[in-house]
Design a protein that fits this description.
With 432 residues, the protein is an alpha/beta fold. Helix content is 47%, strand content 15%.
């Protein structure tokens, strides 16, 4: 009897395991930043995937707000996400540590939309230091941008922000939000501290982006501590919302957040703008990767391909404010607007974009891109940077920071409601 019961239990366990494994193979687990995809895109992918492959797919969509948190979970093998969307320096680290699978771009009868990437983006991704591996075999770009100043034109003039040194202007006491992103802020401060060396080519900008020496960390820490009276708070996502409410005058911000804030602020009569200081800045990229422990690699690579379709890229940009890596004629045509002054975007779209009217917060122009460079992973030196960052934020704490943190949840709720209303208005405009 015991043997019969044990045999029955084993059969039930095997059947249950097979059922679970089969369900997992039809599930696509995606790990992405918050507010980083257009409304309805996930549902449209499910329909498209069924059409292209004949297979159903269920999507499990989870969010992260810090690259290092996402990386830690994958490093420890605690999660089996099929897709993640890390930034360039994390992609670099993941490739070095063999945490990624190559992306098969053979889609059979389905077109390969990955070929729609801007050559500029492909070149930047291939600059990732992957110790002999070809980065574009393991990562496909998604969104990109720069780091600069989002500012309120009622209180601040553009000429006051031509340098990162503006952070120390006593006129801005308690009026600045700083992005709580240690690597972005650190790399921008390097361009300020070593500006003369960049000009003389003693420290070329691309080389400087690798610098995490004790000397440079100390210099950046000293400068950031010197501006503590000017910092109203450190933020990961709520700064853009606060700027639309005129709670601060400036925000060291990502260009995508700036584009969103400028448009939102205009609806309530607040005039915001964005500028990249003359010393230079970092140019950042987020890209799709298939982690080592992925189970559904087929749906993962089809999803990446789907996201590179021009119409999907346009929808994503329209709703989240960030700039897609897709550079087809359809995207160029859609993004042009007579409200903007002409700029040279040949670096991104090619010769057809020599004199086009694009949003300068999103596409910048060749003159801005020339003074920007990609960040890199600091390897074992990362702990040194994190320690510096903790000391800086500790020394810069003020009562306003606590108030801001308490307000964050409410702001996110308000942001979600406003975003839905705005999306509805955009759809009505398109239908009209």
């Amino acid at each position: 009897m015991k043997k019969t019961i044990m045999a029955l239990f084993c059969v039930l366990f095997v059947v249950s395991s097979c059922t679970t494994d089969e369900k997992r193979m039809h599930t696509l687990k995606i790990y992405n930043w918050a507010d980083y995809i257009g409304e309805g895109v996930l549902e449209d992918f499910q329909q498209w995937y069924k059409q292209e492959t004949g297979e159903d797919v269920e999507i499990v969509y989870q969010l992260f707000d810090i690259n290092e948190v996402m990386l830690s979970k994958i490093e420890k093998g605690h999660e089996d996400w099929d897709l993640a969307c890390p930034s360039e320096y994390i992609i670099e680290r993941m490739m070095r540590n063999n945490l990624l699978l190559p992306i098969n771009q053979n889609f059979g009868k389905t077109p390969n939309y990955i070929k729609n990437l801007s050559p500029y983006i492909v070149k930047c991704f291939n600059d990732i230091d992957a110790e002999g591996k070809k980065p574009t075999d393991y990562a496909v770009g998604y969104m990109w941008g720069t780091t600069g100043f989002l500012y309120n034109k009622r209180f601040v003039k553009a000429d006051e922000l031509r340098s990162w040194g503006a952070l120390s202007n006593p006129r801005f006491k308690g009026k600045i939000y700083m992005k709580d992103a240690f690597r972005d802020v650190y790399s921008c401060m390097l361009t300020y501290i070593y500006h003369d060396d960049i000009i003389s080519e003693k420290k070329p900008l691309k080389t400087l982006m690798y610098d995490s020496s004790d000397e440079s960390i100390e210099k950046v820490e000293t400068y950031l501590k010197s501006i503590k009276d000017n910092v109203a708070g450190w933020e990961q996502d709520f700064g853009k919302e606060q700027m639309t409410k005129e709670k601060a005058w400036m925000n060291l911000s990502w260009s995508g957040d700036a584009a969103w804030a400028i448009e939102e602020a205009a609806d309530v009569g607040v005039d915001l703008d964005y500028i990249v200081p003359d010393e230079g800045s970092n140019v950042w990229f987020d890209g799709w990767v298939i982690p080592k422990y992925a189970k559904n690699t087929k749906a993962a690579r089809y999803f990446i391909n789907f996201m590179c379709r021009p119409d999907i890229a346009i929808r994503n940009m329209d709703e989240i404010g960030y700039v897609s890596v897709i550079a087809t004629p359809e995207v160029l045509e859609e993004m042009q607007d007579d409200a903007y002054e002409p700029l040279d975007a040949t670096f991104f779209f090619g010769e057809s974009a020599k004199n086009v009217r694009l949003n300068p917060v999103q596409y910048f122009g060749t003159d801005v891109i020339k003074r920007c460079a990609m960040m890199h992973d600091s390897g074992q030196r990362t702990e040194k940077l994190l320690s510096m960052w903790s000391r800086v934020k500790g020394d810069n704490a003020n009562p306003m920071t606590a108030v801001i943190l308490l307000m964050t949840l409410v702001l996110f709720t308000v942001y979600g409601l406003r975003k839905k209303r705005k999306q509805h208005k955009k759809r009505l405009r398109r239908e009209a």
